[in-house]
Amino acid sequence: MATIDSPAPESETHDSHGHDHDHDHPAWLAHHFDTPEQQFDSGKLGIWLFLVTEVLFFSGMFCAYAIFRMLRPEVFEGCSQFLNTKLGAINTGVLLFSSLTMAWAVRCAQTEEHKKLVVLIASTLSCAMVFLGVKSIEYSHKWGMGLLPPGSYFYSEANPHPTMEQMVQQHGFSESAAYFLHNSLYFLCAPFFLLLVGTVIWAILAFVQKKHFQFECAKPLVVVCLSFFLGVGLGMILESGSSEGHGADHAVAHVDGDHSEYAHDDADHSHDAASGVIADYAETSDDTAVEMLAAQDINTGAKDLLNARRTQAELASGQVLPSDADADMGIESIEQDVLTKRQAGVFFGIYYCMTGVHAIHILAGIGVLVWLLIRAIRQDFNKQYFGPVDYVGLYWHLVDLIWIYLFPLLYLIR
Hints:
This protein is mainly alpha-helical. It is built from 15 helices and 2 strands.
């Protein structure tokens, strides 16, 4: 029986828009877009909407910071003494440089400079790893001192570096929790060490088996993993060489009028000055005429004068008045220790929440940048298709911008 060959269906040779697949739709252009410009604009709109949600997410934590700081400014001013400004400044410079390399990478993707694109993406990854290495030093140092959120805070000025036994016996931690706090740096570095070992093994096997593409991917990743330990070493040098944030200037607030003192050195000067006031008062109290007048019941004015001088001397010495004492001398608050679970613990809870979530975003950015690095080595990007590099660059700039706000708010404002 004869058959008639019918023409192939239109869907087999043309897409839904009537364009030929081979000529009008390259591999990097999704089937539901007509032009590269349409695909790029759609992706750009999507990443901006995502960044808006990220801004709203961080806004809640910034609001919590602002409210608590407004209510208890002395707590923030005192506890910020434990933050190492040098480490924060180093991380700020590292992230600013990473923004430069990321923006440069976008330009290289547009101009099809593939080798330079690989180098710049690897540089951005290395900066991110240095940031995490420095941050691991900051976290481990504070955890060992007991500068933790309210439920776990146990810092003691008399013993700023407790042993594992003291954590268990005096602060009620389990042995496993005390072991983690005492050796937290090793736990933070362990995943990156395993990642480094795995990457080195991958590079060696790829080189021996002559798998060129895999070897080209493994080489920059080995450098990236080593950058984490570069940050750890840099953080250890700055942390050990700086007295800032080590308890040398312990944050004990002494509020006298509108003047607050937090360091022990300043407190010693205040105590010396107070001793001088007491001595002057002792000399003036020898005025027998005032004492004799105050001894008479009818001389209420002399009694009030004598009581006012005594109260003023006690306040100048930093002594706490008893609860039933009345003192209306224009002083809103008196000596107060801010290093308590309820106060300092809240500060460090906010600190870990804001910087920890930021670090999680750094880790997410590292994962996406590794994906970009592999695609850049494969030379997937060209003049018409560079959207993924641009989108990741916008995300990375937002992560850097958030740290630009965190650094002065937590480390610098005193």
